[in-house]
Amino acid sequence: MRDAAREGVTLSRRSILMAAAASLTVPHAGRARDSWPPVFEAGRSQFTVVRPRALMPQLRLQDVHGKDVTVAAKPGRITLVNFWATWCAACKLDLPMLARLAGSRPDRLDIVAICTDTKDLRKIRAFLGGLAVQNPACYVDAYGAAAEASTAMFSLVGMPITYLVGTSGRVEGYITGAPDWLSPAGAQLLQFYREQG
pTM above the 0.90 mark? Predict the structure, then answer.
């Protein structure tokens, strides 16, 4: 009887030790999960983290009126680099969403929308005019800077595609399609990268 009682104590101690060990690993697992961004989806697409995190290069582009501009990530701000085309049906949903997003967070976010299929400014302005987009930050890859960057870090795996550049100027990830950036999930993703520094 005494052996059975001692065995019961041993099992109880073992259970306590196992529970203590498990409780020590739970906070660590929670921290590991916090280092990954929240889930953000658009149709069949999901925000995809890219590694290694390369610095966004300066891009020499033209605005839709033909003025030369140099676009770069600004320290402390998030930059969304969007690639679109005039033949793209989903772009007709994505560009107005990005314009609304830019209007809702002008102090914390920069959006760079680059047309990939044509350098014809009249065609691009007509396309944007048909969307009734107010003041989009749309650009033309007149000098091939975006095309060069797309082979190095901005792979065009779908259209439209938006890359998120974090506050440190590094490319963090991308999502294809026309996601709802103003949704709670979109806001959580942007806030996550705002806090990463």
Answer: no
